[in-house]
Write a structure and sequence with these properties.
The protein is 80% helix and 0% strand. It has helices at residues 3-32, 34-55, 62-67, 75-93, 95-116, 128-145.
C-alpha cells in the first residue's frame, strides 16, 4: 500500500469518526447544553491523549514548545469553535447535510490554504478540476438540504 493511499484511508476513517462525533456531541448538548458539551468533550479528549502520551513516554522539551510559532497553538481554540458549531448545526439540519456543509467549508478553506501555501503548506495552485470538484460538492450539499 502506498503512503498516499494509507493517508487517504486514514483521512476517510477520520471523516467517518467525525460524523459519529458530531452526532454524539449533538445528543449530549440536548441533555447538558452546548457550552457544557464543548467543555466535557475537550476534557475527555484531554484525558484520553494524556493517557496515550504518558503511556508512550513521549518526551517534549520546553525548547520545542517555544520554537513553534504562537499561532500554531490556536488549534485548541478552533477545536472549541468546531465542536460548538457541529453540536449546534446537526440537530437543526441532520447529520448528512451538516457534514456536507462542514466538508464544503473544509474544501474551500483547504483550497485557499493550498493555493496560497499558507501555514507552511506546499503551494498547490487552483486547477479547473479542483474548482469543478468544489462546485459539485456545493451542489451535493444543496441537494441534501432539499426535501
Amino acid at each position: 500500500m502506498t503512503e498516499k493511499l494509507l493517508a487517504l484511508i486514514i483521512a476517510a476513517v477520520a471523516g467517518m469518526l467525525m460524523a459519529f462525533q458530531g452526532s454524539l456531541n449533538a445528543a449530549l448538548s440536548k441533555v447538558i447544553g452546548l457550552l457544557e458539551t464543548t467543555f466535557f468533550v475537550h476534557l475527555v479528549g484531554l484525558g484520553t491523549v494524556g493517557i496515550v502520551l504518558f503511556s508512550l513516554s513521549t518526551k517534549i522539551s520546553t525548547a520545542q514548545l517555544i520554537r513553534s510559532p504562537w499561532y500554531t497553538y490556536l488549534g485548541g481554540v478552533l477545536g472549541v469553535l468546531i465542536i460548538y458549531g457541529v453540536a449546534r448545526s446537526i440537530p437543526k439540519v441532520g447529520v448528512a447535510p451538516a457534514t456536507t456543509a462542514i466538508i464544503l467549508g473544509q474544501v474551500i478553506t483547504a483550497s485557499l490554504i493550498d493555493h496560497l501555501g499558507l501555514l507552511g503548506m506546499e503551494r498547490l495552485p487552483f486547477t479547473w478540476f479542483r474548482v469543478a470538484g468544489t462546485l459539485l460538492l456545493a451542489g451535493g450539499a444543496w441537494l441534501l438540504l432539499k426535501k
